[in-house]
Design goal:
The complex is a heterodimer of chains A (255) and B (300). Chain A has helices at 8-22, 24-46, 57-88, 92-95, 101-127, 138-162, 166-182, 195-202, 205-218, 225-249; strands at residues 51-52, 55-56. By secondary structure, chain A is mainly α. Chain A has one domain. Chain A starts with 7 loop residues before the first helix and ends in a 6-residue tail after the last helix. Chain B contains eleven helices and 14 strands. Chain B folds into two domains: 5-221, Rossmann fold (3-Layer(aba) Sandwich); 226-283, Alpha-Beta Plaits, CATH 3.30.70. In chain B, α8 crosses α11 (286-296). Classes of the chains: A mainly alpha (255), B alpha/beta (300). At the A-B interface, α1 and α4 of A face α2 and α3 of B.
Chain lengths: 255, 300
């Protein structure tokens, strides 16, 4: 009766995607609306006053908002799913079956990437009418969306496992994820910052995700996309190794 | 034939609390086994260790010959656990929950078995209802169903009837009995000792993380409990009969080993001038066994 087409990984991935899709108004539509509001406000104030890399401000802003939505929603998916499962106790449904820690990790992270990409696509679709966009090097767009989503999905797994209460998760989100994403060049080029803050920004890995992603649209960026790819790839490898180690040890999941 | 469950020298500490202390236990295939003990005795920790939710500090556990750590995939496929807490995933319907649980075990097309479980547990009318919409009893039934979706040869029920109505109990036990008759090994923890007495062929009692009694139900009843002549009288009982007897609210409980002792007992009471107002024969029961075992067990 065992069918290899089905298994722990496939089913957990399916379940995690179905979970956010069942409440799509909250998990997809709401972040699209939020991004749209950012665009309307910032573009209304700054369009005509600011150009970045020769690109009009609204066009410059759109890829940043798309990528910010990808990252924030990828984090939200794995972290909220895990904390809810832990608090309500239904995490046992995932812990009792023969699912390896690698499958567990891959399913949660991939589902996070799916949600991030779905929301990102929604934001792109909703905002692309406001400014002419080019897709100069689309492979960069795809690469940074997937890698960035995976990094934040992995961070979400860590936060979801670590947090025992919703307010601990909120603290993780408000004091780490939000500052990293907002101070990463979503709304501006870091070249417009004073030298000190430029240096600080170079230590923020989210900057490379946004910058590399934006490079895919315009073919220009603050940093080389290859450098961004190296930073983002290294971050993902380190985070994945750390998360897998937590899961292997059963940290806060298996006493 | 390997044991359904083998637990060898298993210990587990939570901080300074010794939850399990060198537990040795073996459950044979096809048994209906009871795991009893007061709150905090270590029953749930033992079940959790068996299910891989808790990692033992020392010792080994296996299910159908598969070590729960080294060969966890095979061990978990052989085990179905009904957890004690009433947990559910609020995003899904009953049927979706069961299909997802099947998928976790690598089973794709499982609808015919899911339908059978739903029918047997009286859940068919609720198959497409969201889990949030179910009553506590119905959620408990779904938990049982989830533990059975992969047809595990060993089924562990951790207090499955806590706080549920009579109808569910009867439905549940009828179904579990059928599964046991079909060859499934059942391990039950419960605070309802009457259930354990009626269902379990062998029983282990835990206290402070140790096995303090392990025997067949029949032997435990024989060793620790007896028939008793229970009578109510307002008069003074003969002193020699009150030794070893228990008194409660005007009722006396006089233990006896064989029914041929009843007539002489009654004759002695009559001859002492006692008027018997009420009379009944008390059967050996597991509650008495439990109390005596727990009182007699010392944890060093």
């Amino acid at each position: 009766m065992t069918d290899m087409r089905y298994g722990g990984f496939t089913t957990l991935l399916y379940k995690e995607v179905l979970r956010f899709w069942k409440v799509a108004s909250q998990t997809v539509a709401a972040p699209v609306l939020t991004a749209l509001l950012y665009l309307l406000i910032f573009s209304h104030v700054l369009e005509g006053h600011v150009k970045v890399h020769g690109v009009a401000y609204t066009a410059f802003l759109i890829p940043g908002l798309v990528m910010m939505s990808v990252l924030q929603n990828a984090f939200a998916n794995s972290s909220s799913s895990l904390i809810q499962s832990k608090v309500t106790g239904n995490i046992v449904f995932v812990l009792l079956p023969p699912i390896s820690y690698q499958e567990f990790f891959a399913a949660y992270v991939l589902a996070s990437v799916v949600r991030g990409v779905v929301v990102g696509a929604g934001v792109l679709l909703a905002t692309c009418w406001f400014a002419p966009l080019s897709f100069a090097e689309p492979w960069w767009i795809l690469a940074f969306a997937l890698l960035g989503g995976a990094i934040l999905g992995s961070l979400g797994v860590i936060a979801g496992i670590w947090a025992d209460k919703f307010d601990q998760l909120a603290a993780f989100q408000n004091f780490l994820i939000m500052p990293l994403t907002f101070l990463s060049g979503v709304f501006y080029s870091i070249n417009s910052l004073p030298p000190f803050w430029q240096q600080v920004s170079h230590w923020n890995p989210v900057f490379y995700m946004i910058d590399g992603f934006r490079h895919g649209f315009f073919g220009v960026s603050d940093a080389s996309p290859w450098l961004s790819l190296a930073v983002v790839g290294t971050c993902l490898a380190l985070l994945a190794a750390f998360t897998l180690n937590l899961l292997k040890r059963g940290y806060k999941l298996r006493a | 034939m390997s044991a359904a469950i083998r637990i060898q020298q298993v210990s587990k500490c939570f901080g300074s609390t010794q939850a399990l202390d060198r537990v040795d236990l073996e459950v044979r295939q096809g048994e209906f086994f009871g795991l009893l003990g007061p709150n905090g005795a270590g029953k749930t920790t033992l079940i959790s260790a068996l299910a891989g939710l808790v990692r033992a500090d020392a010792g080994s556990l296996s299910v159908m010959g598969h070590d729960v750590q080294a060969d966890y995939r095979a061990a978990r496929r052989c085990l179905g656990v009904v957890p004690q807490e009433l947990v559910f995933d609020p995003f899904f319907t009953v049927r979706e929950s069961l299909q997802i649980q099947s998928g976790y075990f690598g089973i794709g097309d499982n609808d015919s078995w899911i339908d059978e479980i739903l029918e047997n547990l009286g859940l068919t009318p609720k198959a497409n209802a969201n889990m949030r919409m179910l009553s506590g009893g119905m959620k408990r039934r779904v938990l049982v169903a989830q533990a059975l979706v992969h047809r595990p040869p060993v089924i562990v029920l951790d207090e499955p009837t806590a706080g549920v109505d009579v109808e569910l109990r009867q439905t549940l036990w009828a179904f579990i009995r059928r599964l046991n008759e079909a060859g499934h090994t059942i391990v039950l923890t419960t605070h309802y000792l009457e259930e354990a007495e009626n269902l379990c062929t062998r029983i282990a009692m835990l206290k402070a993380g140790r096995v303090v009694a392990l025997d067949t139900t029949v032997n435990l009843l024989r060793r620790f409990s007896a028939h008793s002549l229970r009578l109510r009288t307002a008069d003074a009982m003969p002193v020699e009969l009150t030794r070893g007897a228990a008194a409660n609210g005007g009722w006396w409980s006089l233990p006896f080993d064989g029914f041929d002792e009843v007539e002489p007992l009654l004759a002695r009471i009559r001859s002492a001038g006692c008027r018997i107002d009420d009379l009944e024969i008390g059967k050996p029961d597991l509650e008495e066994v439990f109390v005596r075992v727990m009182q007699g067990a010392h944890h060093d």
